[in-house]
Amino acid sequence: MQEPRPHEGNALAFSRSLGPSTTINTNTRIQHSNKLIARGYLTNQRIFYEKIKNTVWFQMAFANEYKKLLFKGEKDLSKTKNRWLIAASAVGIHISIGSVYAWSVYTKPIVNEFGWDLTELNFTFSLAILFLGLSAAFLGHFVEKYGPRKAGLLSAIFFGIGIVGSGLAIQLESLPLLYLFYGVLGGIGLGVGYIAPVSTLVKWFPDRRGLATGLAIMGFGFASLISSPIIQKLIQSVGIANTFYTLGIAYFIVMVASSLYLEPPVKGWMPAGFEAKVKSGVKKVKEDLSQLTANEAIKTRRFYYLWLMLFINVTCGIAIISSASPLAQESIGLTAVAAAALVGVLGAFNGFGRIGWASISDFIGRPNTYTTFFVIQMIAFPLLPVIDNPLLFQVLLAIIYTCYGGGFASIPAYIGDLFGTKQLGAIHGYILTAWAAAGLVGPMFASWVRETTGSYSQSLTVFAIMFGVAFIISLLIRYDIKELRKQQEANKAKLAS
After folding, report:
1. Which residues, at least 6 apart from 374, have a Cβ–Cβ distance to it below 8 Å?
2. Residue 216: what pLDDT?
3. Domain chopping of the chain, boundaries
4. CB-based contacts of 491: which residues, under 8 Å, 6+ apart?
5. What is the pLDDT of residue 76?
6. Which of 129, 424, 457, 460 is exposed most, by the fewest CB atoms within 10 A?
7. Into which CATH architecture does domain 288-497 fall?
8. Is it true that domain 82-265 has CATH number 3.40.50.360?
9. pTM for the complete prediction?
């Protein structure tokens, strides 16, 4: 079938736009330009260039002139960045901001030095988590508009100033200043830094979305294990204020260096091996159910299903984390020192759960992963207070910790599956308000239930019921997914006919 020929004037105008050439005459340029315009490639220049850059006729004609025209002011597509270094950069940011989980290391030395009320002091941490959620929600659009590099740099500025400013607050013995710097400014840096690399990673790993997001968010989970001993040693050697100054500068340097390497791939990019498998039909790229903006996403039921599932997982997870030490002492008779050591070790399972469950979700699917979380915890929570075998008790706690971390790590890939990557960062920011709400509600709810029922046994039964609600939601969202998939197939059939 002969290709339709465009108006020769269009081809000539396009040919002239490429500039003078001593090796290509006007007729040859018109001929090749006709091919490009007739095939409709010029409407998407980046994809066009990738498709025809290796053809003999293109290289003989005007490869250099066309390349300069299309990519004026842009980087050469042949210089593709290493996606594993992109992942490492994301981990660098998350390990820095994840040090917020080591807040408890500061509390005792600060209380001993200034005599501040522990509840008032711990409100600093609650503020940081609150502003994490708020900044993630309100600055998600900033991440999508300006890209991960500028968002990462913004995060480094806020978080660096927040930590260094906390040193000033300690030096001036001002709790309100500590609220401002660590809670508000540090919290804003947390929120932006948390979502900045995630949507980019999803685009760099179309073949392993769960693994990609799990890698970054694993860094957040492991951060307290790395930073806690460092903070402890610094406080002993240089004091509290100087510890904040030293770490604030160190975090700023690591976050800036990591942010400068972050960059999304070109649209439609796939890793070479995966692309070859897709073209040969060995692998299939599973299409996202939709491509929605953040403002469109919040008008759907599935957005609120995701929000509620994350909220329940985090609320109950925070409750068990905050009471793990006294629960271990009551249930299996551990000493306070042994229980504290157990809590430290369990922190590693929080990190392993992030990379482990997120990777598993690539194979069994995100809906199955979240349903599994809730089934496991529905059974595990009520069993904890009645188990007197130390080993079994610790195994159950470890599994619960992995589900807590896995819930965080699998949510970005789930968002991508349901809403696409168009504004994944902004949608992720909105979803993270569930974390902010759980950060405030979780500990207070756990304390209230404990005081009302008088035992951990009753409170954990209440949490098991909450997981039952989350389990039902995880089934309801499947109905929405099924309906959307049917609609997607119907649209494909309509287009084909």
Report:
1. 309, 313, 467, 468, 470, 471, 474
2. 81
3. 8-70, 82-265, 288-497
4. none
5. 46
6. 457
7. Up-down Bundle (1.20)
8. no
9. 0.75
